[in-house]
Amino acid sequence: MTRIGAFVQVLLLSAAATLLQAEVRVPKIISNHMLVQRGVPVRIWGTASGGEAVTVSMAGQSVKTQADPTGRWEAYLAPINAVGPHALTIKGTNKLTIEDVLAGEVWVGSGQSNMAWPVSRTDNAEKEMQMADFAQIRLFKVKTATSEYPLEDVEGEWTWCTPETVKEFSGVGYYFARYLREKVGAPIGIIQSAWGGTPAVSWTSRLTLASDPALAPAMADYAKSIDDYPAAYARYQKQLKDWEAASAKARAEGTKAPNRPGQPVGPGHPWNPSSLYNAMIAPLTPYAIRGVIWYQGENEAVIRRSYMYRRLFRTMIEDWRRAWGVGDFPFLFVQLANFAKAPQGQWPELREAQTMALELRNTGMAVTIDIGNPNDIHPTNKQEVGRRLGLAAQAIAYKQQKMVYSGPMYRQLSRENGALRVWFDYADGGLVAKGGELKSFEIAGADGKFVPAQAKIEKDTIVVSSPAVANPVSVRYGWADSPECNLYNGEGLPASPFRTNRWTDPLVYR
Predict the structure, then answer these.
(1) Residue 477: what are its φ and ψ, rounded to 5°?
(2) Which segments of the chain have a pLDDT < 70?
(3) Nearest in space to 293 (alpha carbons), one of 419, 171, 413, 437
(4) Cα→Cα distances 127→33, 82, 121, 445, Å
(5) How far is CA 485 from CA 140, 263, 337, 426, 439, in A?
């Protein structure tokens, strides 16, 4: 036997010995203070020695299973509705005890920086944190990571909601959980899995991206980034040295340091297609959930990508639903707020793309066009964002159908006497113009040139006209990066920006 062969044999024997002595283990999402989804089978899974017998017990149930030859095992407990706390025991050659387990409602909060934005940086943060002491709200924050292939575990831990644990937790996630805790009357668990400044393509599985020809441009962009990476990385290294020198000078002079240059897209970058799905979503998919709340899209609000988002966002939602394998679970998302400093702004088009996703079953959208900060991409009124998502959850996830959970949504258009009448869904309680006359309505003829219009409310419709357009054919509302919108329904929920035409912006092809 060669020296290399002997070395390989030693490694194989060592690996085999390790496998034979492997302890029963579970992923980090199964840990003390966890909250399991009530009313559905509870899936518990992990690793052990190949062929090892494993017994899982909780809430008066006990289920036996066996690890397969690779050491993987799983067991299902019958649905648990009693809140608890329960103790979960997992016994093989060793015994694990998971303490303080509650049964309630589990939601995943994902997206980019506005989902990750912590409670400590929201409105009235100090007061909010002082009051955030809820033993029946459980928080799990997934550590940011990337991977080229799907992982089986994440880094993180379950905690009670306390002033300390909520401080750096998602503001939207926490306020959503607090609202639901009161309205649904059950413990709420929020799994935060978000990363600032990331595109939806990073949150979608590679198989799904590769199988959809309509998303080929996204993959082509990535391929070009990889080709350009060596030169881009060399430039980045120089920029980094210049930044370090400028930062040192700023510290010495007591002035503000410049922003650190961003790394180019390449190995390990969070913009890589599927990299965040692999590391931060795939490991969670065996865990039963009620639904997802999503806040993302700022990265897509640029030429070309805003139009691709029409397909990509819907595809991502369907991709996650297939991965969890529990049907069309509720997927609730936040439409982009008003923002006046968007470079190469395509925010109206991105909002439209988000609205199109409502064609999917069990989706809901929180409109935030009235509560953004025109000068800050991170609005701090996350309380109202969480409440509006909570309203959608009440109606869609918990079937409280009599409640109004959306502001007015454009339905159809009719012509009459040189004007256009706009009809809406969710016009409950009539339509309201807050602060005076309606603003941000525009009208166009067949030439597609929009001009400011007069808009008048008539019950649950709006009549739009302009003396400059004798034969109008199209209306749009709030069609700007940061429009001044004041149309609401009787429940005080804002109307979503819209346009009645479907003209494609030629800039999309540049």
Answers:
(1) -140, 130
(2) 1-21, 343-344, 503-510
(3) 171
(4) 25, 32, 12, 52
(5) 36, 37, 11, 17, 6
Quickly count: other Cβ atoms within 10 Å of residue 491's Cβ. Answer: 16
Sketch the domain layout of the chain as residue ranges. 208-271, 409-509
pLDDT of residue 7: 43
Taking the model in full, what pTM does it have? 0.92
Q: What is the DSSP letter of 118?
A: B
Q: Percent helix, strand and coil across the chain, each rounded to 5?
A: 30, 25, 45
Separation between Cα atoms, residue 248 and residue 230, nearest integer Å: 27
d(CA 481, CA 342): 7
Q: In what order do the strands lie in the sheet with 419-425?
A: 409-416, 419-425, 461-465, 454-458
CB 474 within 8 A of CB 448: yes
Predicted pLDDT at 495: 97
Half-sphere exposure of 496 (CA within 13 A, CB side): 31
- Rounded to the nearest angstrom, the gap between the alpha carbon of residue 143 and the centroid of all alpha carbons in its chain is 15
Angle at 239 between CA 238 and CA 241, to 5 degrees: 65
DSSP per-residue codes, 196-233: TT--GGGGS-HHHHHT-GGGHHHHHHHHHHHHHHHHHH
Q: Pick 409-509's CATH classification: 2.60.40, 1.20.1090, 3.40.50, 1.10.357.
A: 2.60.40
In the block, residue with structure tokens 């339905």? 411
Distance from the Cα of residue 228 to its chain's centroid: 30
Phi, psi of 355 (to 5 degrees): -60, -35
- Tokens standing for 298? 């700022």
- pLDDT of amino acid 242: 86
Euclidean distance between CA atoms 176 and 164, whole angstroms: 18
At residue 21, the 3 state secondary structure works out as coil
Q: Which two tokens stand for residue 282?
A: 């795939």
Helix 216-253 to helix 305-324 angle, to the nearest 10 degrees? 100
Quick one: pLDDT at residue 253?
85
Across 391-428, b (16+ Cβ under 10 Å) vs e yields: bbbbbbbbeeeeebbbbbbbeebeeeeebbbbebebbb
Phi, psi torsion values for 114, nearest 5 degrees: -70, -20
HEC secondary structure over 246-300: HHHHHHHHCCCCCCCCCCCCCCCCCCCCCHHHHHHHHHHCCCCCCEEEEECCHHH
The residue with tokens 């494993």 is 54
Give the integer Cα–Cα distance in Å for 403 and 101.
32
What local confidence, expressed as pLDDT, does residue 344 receive? 61
Check residue 451 and give its pLDDT: 97
